[in-house]
């Protein structure tokens, strides 16, 4: 019998935080279509994908037409799932060929089998979202070209855990917006995906020697933050119809400090030409964590280096138990009731911070 302890040992992980930064070039991401026909598999190929996934696409009667806002959510979900298919396909290929950094030794086959299932499950998620778009007379979202800033299994799993946390937060927002726009027939299906992604996240956390469940109430997010984060992994100009997704893309925010489970001063940077103001006293550093009211901290300018502005802000870990995912943004104003208000006022973000 294989224990969780031996799986953790295989991964050899003890990461305590993840800091978002601009992606760097990695090995070429998988070329679409994949060998199984995805994103446009035949009926026979879908059957094979379902076998690898351990389950099927939903086969109930078609839901009523989705609202215009609901279509935005379906487009974002499809964009994200295509990104995840590309990421996990590349990870699976690297594990299969055991390229340097991806040979796990004892337990390798167990991990390989798990990732193979994840690839197929994410393919079904994408097919389901694009199927919803087609059923409403909307064009499906097409895959981009991608670049992932990882070169070994340890970093790949840390990144997978972080973007899965963002997905878990964003699907909360999608469920809320489906309900608010009257698209209630989509809420149950999204809930099933939330659970499925949660199972994945627990696995990725175990592989990092972390407790499988991070928080009692997972950090919320909004669609715009996820939309921006996904584009950080796409090759500019390579997304054929991303313009159909009417969401906001924020300017990049770089988290320069490796944060851990303690209160400290954190350093960030941004491009001054994108700030829209020279009066940085009108801006605040905002942290979104769990289901709590966003935390607002004062910015202190460290210096300007060309177009790069470096600032510091307090990171109040101990005061608020800032475990799991924390989303950082620089926004105009100093008081925000919820994540939606932060997104409406945000200029730079999201900075993604992982602790515990």
Give structural notes.
By secondary structure, the chain is an alpha+beta fold. The chain has two domains: about 5-245, no CATH class; about 255-355, Sandwich (Immunoglobulin-like). About 40% of the residues lie in helices and about 15% in strands. The chain has nine helices and eight strands. Strands 1-2-6-5 form a four-stranded antiparallel beta sheet, with no helix packed on it. Strands 4-3-7-8 form a four-stranded antiparallel beta sheet. A hairpin with an 8-residue loop joins strand 1 and strand 2 (about 265-270). Helix 3 (about 70-95) packs antiparallel against helix 5 (about 155-180) and helix 3 packs parallel to helix 7 (about 225-230). The longest helix is centred in the first third of the chain and has 30 residues, at about 70-95.
Briefly characterize the structure.
By secondary structure, the chain is α+β, with helices and mostly antiparallel strands.
Number of domains: 2
Number of β-strand runs? 8
Q: The biggest beta sheet, please?
A: 4 strands, antiparallel
The helicity comes to: 40-55%
Question: How is the largest sheet built, in terms of strand order?
Answer: 1-2-6-5
Proportion of strand residues: 15-25%
What is the oligomer described by this structure? single chain
Structural class: alpha+beta
Count every helix, treating DSSP H or I runs of 4 or more residues as helices: 9
Q: What would you report as the Rg, rounded to the nearest angstrom?
A: 20 Å
**Which H/E pattern describes the elements?**
HHHHHHHEEEEEEHEHE
Residue windows where pLDDT falls under 50 for at least 5 positions: 1-26
Average pLDDT for all residues: 92
Distance between the termini: 27 Å
């Amino acid at each position: 019998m294989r224990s969780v302890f031996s799986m953790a040992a295989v991964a050899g992980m003890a990461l305590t935080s993840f800091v978002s930064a601009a992606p760097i070039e990695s090995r070429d991401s998988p070329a679409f279509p994949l060998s199984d026909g995805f994103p446009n598999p035949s009926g026979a190929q879908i059957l094979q994908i379902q076998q690898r996934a351990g389950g099927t696409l939903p086969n109930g009667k078609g839901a009523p037409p989705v609202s215009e806002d609901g279509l935005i959510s379906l487009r974002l979900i499809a964009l994200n799932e295509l990104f995840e298919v590309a990421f996990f396909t590349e990870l699976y290929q690297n594990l299969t060929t055991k390229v340097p950094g991806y040979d796990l030794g004892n337990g390798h086959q167990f991990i390989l089998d798990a990732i193979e299932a994840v690839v197929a499950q994410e393919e079904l998620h994408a097919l389901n979202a694009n199927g919803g778009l087609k059923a409403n007379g909307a064009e499906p979202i097409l895959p981009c070209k991608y670049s992932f800033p990882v070169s070994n299994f340890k970093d790949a799993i840390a990144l997978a855990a972080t973007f899965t946390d963002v997905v878990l937060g964003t699907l909360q927002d999608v469920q809320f917006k489906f309900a608010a726009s009257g698209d209630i027939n989509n809420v149950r299906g999204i809930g099933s995906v939330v659970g499925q992604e949660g199972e994945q996240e627990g696995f990725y956390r175990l592989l990092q020697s972390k407790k499988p469940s991070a928080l009692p109430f997972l950090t919320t997010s909004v669609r715009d933050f996820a939309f921006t984060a996904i584009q950080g992994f796409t090759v500019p100009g390579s997304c054929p119809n991303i313009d159909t997704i009417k969401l906001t893309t924020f300017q990049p925010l770089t988290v320069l400090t490796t944060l851990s489970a303690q209160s400290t001063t954190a350093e960030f940077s941004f491009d001054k030409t994108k700030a829209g103001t020279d009066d940085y006293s009108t801006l605040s550093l905002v942290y979104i964590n769990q289901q709590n009211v966003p935390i607002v901290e004062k910015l202190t300018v460290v210096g300007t280096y060309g177009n790069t502005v470096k600032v510091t802000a307090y990171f109040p870990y101990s005061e608020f138990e800032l475990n799991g995912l924390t989303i950082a943004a620089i926004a105009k104003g100093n008081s925000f009731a919820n994540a939606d208000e932060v997104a409406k006022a945000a200029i730079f973000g999201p900075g993604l911070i992982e602790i515990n």
